[in-house]
Amino acid sequence: MPRRRRRNFKFRFPPEIEDEIFKWTIHIHPHLRTDAQLATVSKRVQKCIEPLLYQTIKICGSTGNFESQYRLTHEDKFAVALNLKPQTFFQKHVKNLLFIRTVSKGFVRRMLSTCTGVRHLSYVSDHRSRDDCKLIASLPLLSITADKMTLDALSRFKCKLPQVTHLKTAPCFEDDLTPILDWMPALTNVTMEVYEDHEHILRSLRNIIKSVKRLEKIVVFIQNFDDWYDRGYFPEEEIDEWMEVDPRIEVVELEVGYISIWEETVNISLEIKVEKNEGSKYLGNKWEMKKISK
Fold it and tell me: Under DSSP, is residue 189 helix (H, G, I), strand (E, B) or coil?
């Protein structure tokens, strides 16, 4: 019998469909090192996906498990991109920016002065000079994650953030937070992440309620319940007391770290699988948390 010839079927997607496939790949698996390789497929694909690749930047200044665990970019590697691309590219496309404490002072300032369109900032840094604070205040921020010392510095240098509606910070124990929060007149949502130092949370909650004039919600993230039990604390009793203070207080048991919380704040899809719990509350598309109710 004569051999049948194999037919080679070739199918080409329209460019618009191909672009959507590349975009969807990045959305499903954000911050993978291989994402950057997609930009080498063609000039058209590069133009299509680079705005997505640079939309969220997470910078560290040291290597190790922390860098790989949270898919951070070392400052030396990102400096290469800063040197190759025009400043207008970063001004237009970088919307979400995170620093961890190991990033050098010079690089923090370079990023803040280059990425001037940032809307969501996580500033975990020891650099709090007047110049640093003025650079933060120049950004069109909608949300900020910062420690108490950074908030104090912003207040001391009279740096106003008029559009910020969401603040995430550690518990603040002052009797009156108004001097610190006056420079965020649009603030409506406050998030606190509680680890071991939880004895004064009740006082902190009352201070926030007193100081934030347009408050809509306070979310208290709790980690490491087992540690509480090991040290003789009974979190259920404390949580009931917290939630009786004001109906706008919500307490959530969380199984991911602060970087993941920040990513969800800016609506970035994550591949973090958490066991489903009855009454769980979704804050994003990919992971969920157990909401604690009375």
Answer: strand
Helix axes 105-114, 75-84, angle to 10 degrees: 40
Cβ-contact 70, 58 below 8 angstroms: yes
- pTM, two decimals, is 0.78
H helix or E strand, kind and range, residue 218: strand 217-222
Average pLDDT, the chain: 77
Directed axis angle between helix 105-114 and helix 130-137, to 10°?
30
- C-alpha–C-alpha distance, residues 72 and 58, integer Å: 5
Question: Tens digits of per-residue pLDDT, 144-197?
Answer: 999 888 998 999 999 999 999 999 887 666 667 777 888 999 999 998 877 655
**Amino acid making up residue 75:** E
- What distance in Å separates the CA atoms of residue 216 and residue 213, rounded to the nearest whole number? 9
Q: What is the pLDDT of residue 138?
A: 96
Total residues found in the chain within this entry: 294
- Compute the half-sphere exposure of residue 268: CA atoms within 13 Å on the CB side of its CA: 25
Report CA torsion sign: 41, 45, 49, 50: positive
User: Residues 6 or more apart from 204 whose CB is under 8 A from it?
Assistant: 171, 172, 173, 192
Q: Where are the alpha helices (DSSP H) in 70-161?
A: 75-84, 87-93, 105-114, 130-137, 148-156
Spatial CA neighbour of 274 closest among 282, 264, 262, 266: 282
